[in-house]
Amino acid sequence: MKKSHTPCSRVVTCGSIPLESSYQRVSRCVYVSTELYEYRGWGGKSANPKHRYFSWGCRHSEKYVIDFYISDFQSGLRALVKAGYGAKVSPFVKLATAVDMTKENKDLSPSFLSWLAERNLYSDDRIMRLKEGYIKEGSTVSVMGAVRRHDNILMIVPPPEPISTGCQWTQCLLPTYVEGLIMTCDENQNADVVHV
Description:
Blueprint: E1 8-14, E2 29-40, E3 55-65, E4 68-72, E5 77-81, E6 89-93, E7 96-101, H1 110-118, E8 127-136, E9 140-144, E10 146-150, E11 153-157, E12 163-164, E13 177-178, E14 181-185, E15 194-195
Parallel strand pairs: 5-11, 6-14, 7-15
Antiparallel strand pairs: 1-4, 1-9, 2-3, 2-8, 4-5, 7-8, 9-14, 10-11, 12-13
């Protein structure tokens, strides 16, 4: 954790106000993301202006992140990650499908229907898929940012300029530049899909 722009992988601990995922109600999270997708068939309604026929389109998205700590239990080193309060953050967290809904089984999930109603979203006869991703306390995350020290507190903050991801030939990825603090969490969230 001593070099700037060097990824470090450590265990997450929450600050004073943790987050909770909006559908599955997973508590003590530092990052939560919920996305609602709709499948558009021939003549179907579009989820957004760029939604094409015979594809999934994002209709609704919620993403929240807060400041949190990462800790190395072997060395006792602890750093504050300044990810909240409008900081630029690029999270790379896999979303897991929480709900799959078709017009034939739309009445079998009152919790999903109430989640839609709370957001003034309508189900009609649409084919929908709800996905959630989160980083919860106890997970191991990799963070890349600028390291600073303030009043004896070690902090990782968003860097002043974009960070290069470098070449990843095994995945056929060319270098790209990402703005803000980069966070990744590859741990399996063990989200069970609810086919409603």
